């Protein structure tokens, strides 16, 4: 057995963040999709929020979640494009202790097969902060499906071999 995989499923505690100036709970199909898939995979969704495309509000929300001992994974959708309001990378990157370069690279590789060269306009990225793994993807539901089915479903499954992210996140803290 690999030291990075387990024979048993370990449910992770996940927070979902939708970055949007226009979405609310009734129109947030991307965040809704991520919540649904995380639950279907046996994880526990412990928080969900919609935050406007504002660098400092985004940074405040993420800071709160990475300081929360009950959150191990953050799935963020939106704000990764090139419009003036797309500031998720600028908001989150300064908070990262370590970047997960392969997430954005693999996302764009998979996405190329779906949308061709338009994938170069995706700034999907990921990193670790305070033992929390943060995965940021574009705001379209199709992009969230690409990230979930092509990467996250397996990489958040403690049984996936030869390795996955489950052993790399901080254990849930009951002291918060």
Automatic annotation (TrEMBL):
Keywords associated with the record: Molybdenum cofactor biosynthesis
Domain MoaB/Mog per the UniProt entry, residue ranges: 15-159
Reported function: May be involved in the biosynthesis of molybdopterin.
Transmembrane segments: none
Coiled-coil stretches: none
Pathway: Cofactor biosynthesis; molybdopterin biosynthesis
Family: Belongs to the MoaB/Mog family.
Highest rank taxon of the organism: Bacteria
Name of the protein this chain belongs to: Molybdenum cofactor biosynthesis protein B
């Amino acid at each position: 057995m690999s030291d990075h995989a387990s024979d048993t499923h370990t449910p992770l505690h996940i927070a979902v963040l939708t970055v949007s100036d226009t979405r609310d709970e009734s129109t947030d199909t991307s965040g809704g999709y991520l919540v649904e898939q995380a639950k279907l995979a046996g994880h526990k969704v412990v928080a969900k929020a919609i935050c406007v495309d504002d660098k400092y509000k985004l940074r405040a929300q993420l800071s709160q979640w990475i300081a929360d001992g009950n959150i191990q994974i953050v799935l963020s959708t939106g704000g990764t494009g090139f419009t003036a309001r797309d500031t998720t990378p600028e908001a989150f990157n300064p908070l990262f202790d370590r970047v997960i370069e392969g997430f954005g690279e693999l996302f764009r590789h998979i996405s190329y097969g779906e949308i061709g060269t338009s994938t170069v306009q995706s700034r999907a990225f990921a990193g670790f902060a305070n033992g929390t793994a943060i995965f940021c993807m574009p705001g379209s539901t199709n992009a969230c499906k690409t990230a979930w089915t092509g990467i996250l479903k397996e990489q958040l499954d403690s049984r996936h071999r030869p390795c996955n992210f489950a052993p790399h996140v901080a254990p849930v803290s009951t002291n918060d």
